[in-house]
């Protein structure tokens, strides 16, 4: 039996500095069922669909998105070794990733037979299952270096991600039409990949509609 104690996604997102729109997009893409209780977002701690803990699944998916701009391996459950870090990057297996994430769970979740979310009382307090800032706790040298590389990867990737969200929000608000090259830079994709898209496509919480202006191909942005 796998544990079904809820994972507090709101705290998880804040501690990992993952934009809310991106977390919603990841959960939607991975078909992770969520439930809002007292203004906090929760989900099952273990994903029966993917056979791994949800926090590990989301960290892996986030790393794949950072590396490729896609979730191909995550969605196909092909959890190959994934690159962690930018400079002096290392390859980490899903088992190693789970081991590092597991060490940050203060208490093991209780065993339960059901698959539904466990109700959370208004007075209950959940410990966040996420990776703390570098230097928290003492790990063996090799494991510590791996965790440090993971933390750096999560932190260093935030600035371009947040910049992209800010620019896309502005484009949607002001009804700007973006070129394929500009849109590709914001989404971390090549111009040719963007131009090969169909009439519309969705990514990270935004919908992009192809607009022809003479011989030029432009893109209208709207948030969904």
Structure description:
- 31% of the residues are buried.
- The protein has 224 residues and is an alpha+beta fold.
- The strands form 4 sheets. The chain has a 4-stranded antiparallel sheet. The protein has a 3-stranded antiparallel sheet with strand order 1-3-2. Strands 4-5 form a two-stranded antiparallel ribbon.
- It has helices spanning 9-16, 20-29, 54-68, 72-75, 94-102, 141-156, 158-174, 180-187, 191-195, and strands at 6-8, 34-37, 40-44, 46-47, 52-53, 82-84, 90-92, 177-179, 200-203, 206-213, 216-223.
- The two termini are 37 Å apart.
- The chain folds into 2 domains: 6-156, no CATH class; 160-223, no CATH class.
- The radius of gyration is 19 Å and the shape is globular.
- 41% of the residues lie in helices and 20% in strands.
Provide tags for this entry.
224 residues; 3-stranded antiparallel beta sheet; alpha+beta; 9 helices; 41% helix; 2 domains; 4-stranded antiparallel beta sheet
Radius of gyration: 19 Å
Total individual domains: 2
Shape, principal axes of CA atoms = globular
Instruction: Give the percentage of residues in beta strands.
Output: 15-25%
Major sheet: arrangement of strands: 8-11-10-9
- Strand segment count: 11
| Cα end-to-end separation | 37 Å
Give the rounded overall mean pLDDT. 74
Extract low-pLDDT stretches. 106-144
Count, helices: 9
**Which range best describes the helical content: under 10%, 10-25%, 25-40%, 40-55%, 55-70% or over 70%?**
40-55%
Largest sheet: 4 strands, antiparallel
SSE run: EHHEEEEHHEEHHHEHHEEE
């Amino acid at each position: 039996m796998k544990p079904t104690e809820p994972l507090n996604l709101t705290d998880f997102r804040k501690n990992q500095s993952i934009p809310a729109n991106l977390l919603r997009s990841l959960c939607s893409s991975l078909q992770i069922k969520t439930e809002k209780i007292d203004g906090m977002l929760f989900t099952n701690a273990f994903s029966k669909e993917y056979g791994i803990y949800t926090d590990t699944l989301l960290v892996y998916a986030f790393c794949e998105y950072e590396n490729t701009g896609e979730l191909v391996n995550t969605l196909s459950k092909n959890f190959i070794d994934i690159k962690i870090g930018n400079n002096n990057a290392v390859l980490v297996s899903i088992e190693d990733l789970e081991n590092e994430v597991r060490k940050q769970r203060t208490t093991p979740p209780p065993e339960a037979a059901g698959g539904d979310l466990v109700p959370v009382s208004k007075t209950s307090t959940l410990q966040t299952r996420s990776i703390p800032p570098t230097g928290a706790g003492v790990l063996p040298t090799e494991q510590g270096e791996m965790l440090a590389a993971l933390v750096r990867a999560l932190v260093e990737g935030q600035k371009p991600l947040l910049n992209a969200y800010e620019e896309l929000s502005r484009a949607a608000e002001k009804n700007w039409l973006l070129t394929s090259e500009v849109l590709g830079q914001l989404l971390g994709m090549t111009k040719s990949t963007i131009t090969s898209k169909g009439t519309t496509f969705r990514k990270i919480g935004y919908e992009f509609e192809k607009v022809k202006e003479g011989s030029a191909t432009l893109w209208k942005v709207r948030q969904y």
